């Protein structure tokens, strides 16, 4: 059974460190800086290892010839972005089809886990077995079925199966030394998630109708009088296309594969009926990989150094620029405050230009305070949700082995964080002289979630039209609405009520009754120019990690290095705060006191660069040409950009608000 020590491996892995090092490789400095804190944590919990187990990740022990169930998850393609359930194609079906009860995250991802007719026994070989064969008769695909299969093959669809919750992978062997002798060539083994449904060659379409399963097991150490138990630690497949004439099947559903490379592939002609066999073979191999490390094959990323380079580069750039900006601002502020506080030069000071001149207007409530406080409340809700999700995922609690757990946790956390969003929005709304707190609470609970739900519903209608498993079923949509109005809305009202009753933020200066005239602003104080300037530093700190996130979302890859993501998130918070303070300081020095909305918009400027990068990624990395996949991509990208703008805008706004209150509290105002 996995214990808390296995959780330690997940922590190391999430932080990008190797799970284990050979003896003699750990230096004293490395031990003190990296391993010692985590080792002390794990050592303190070691005494509980016999009683504590990580929930939901208990291993399954198999005995000799125990059945190992092969289940199908879905069909996916990076070209269409439309997942389909396994039996949407005319695959062989078992006598009774049973769908697994799925969590919210699995449903939203389009997973439809279902049983298959593959008969696999632990440590039992099968040379060749025919599926859905009746009295040695091949399967006949109708013209409509043939056309559908051919269409899915040309759209580069992959089939995803699981055995003991391990996804199937296709081994790819790449040779790194191309110019050297064949004997010296080094194989670079990589794994592709799932297996290709088929392939095309010279305008002909071929189906992979034979699957060679290679399963690896780890033999557990047992006492002499006990039977050996096995655990599945890897699941590979070699898909093959073998035409009907080259497969010899008998009445016992056994078959004989052709020897060598003499066979021809199974062609699928979309204009007529096609006859073929669906066959499979099973091969078992013993492995030294332990159950706790069996996901390493799928999660090992060959470009970990790129992540470290990105982190180090971002840290150096952000803190170097932050140091320079902070030093300039602090020196300038000290000079300003010293000049403003000279009692004998009050008249000269008032004639000067600067941020003190707008002290009577800097805290003047902006236009549409209810909408501003509602958006900031949703931003706080997002911030709390993302911070908790990334931190918990960094500890290994939301690994890909727990299917849909990440999305399920994010949805529920966003609902429950409504109390914090409502509290912050209510207190800010009262600070901005608002009075209609009930309407403000309703606006906070429905504005951002309503936009998200509306866009998702429209996109879902298009997905429904394609009969894709990615379409959210109607009962799930009703359940989401019940969660929204039954959990999130009451919690937002609760937080808003207490936030509105709490003492408003104490502004250090009073607001004049007559607004001050704002002088004409220079071109670089334009709002769009400010967005361009403010967004580039936070985006530069995170764009490398953004590439891997996009690959995980749009190309069906696993993303597991949440330790890096947590560091990037901290860097993003720091950089957004620094840039926001600089931008609001420049604005106040230009005697423009309308900083509330402008700072919120400008602080989220990195969202504009995320949008530009998403367009670049669509054009250069994806092969999407159809209308509906393009609509899905840009629809979900719009939601990501909106959420990112709310997040970074909220971070920058509160940093700037604290800064403005601090500097005006430090000067003497007559």
From TrEMBL:
Q: Which domain of life is it from?
A: Eukaryota
Name the UniProt key words of this record, in alphabetical order: Golgi apparatus, Membrane, Signal, Transmembrane, Transmembrane helix
Q: Which GO terms describe its biological process?
A: protein localization to membrane
- The residues that cross the membrane are 308-330, 374-398, 404-429, 441-465, 477-500, 528-554, 560-588, 600-619, 631-660
Q: Which InterPro entries match?
A: EMP70 (IPR004240)
Annotated membrane topology:
Multi-pass membrane protein
Q: Where would you say this protein principally sits, based on its record?
A: Golgi
Location within or outside the cell: Golgi apparatus; Membrane
Q: Which terms in the GO cellular component ontology are assigned?
A: Golgi apparatus; membrane
User: Which protein family is it in?
Assistant: Belongs to the nonaspanin (TM9SF) (TC 9.A.2) family.
Q: What is this protein called?
A: Transmembrane 9 superfamily member
**Protein source organism:** Sciurus carolinensis (Eastern gray squirrel)
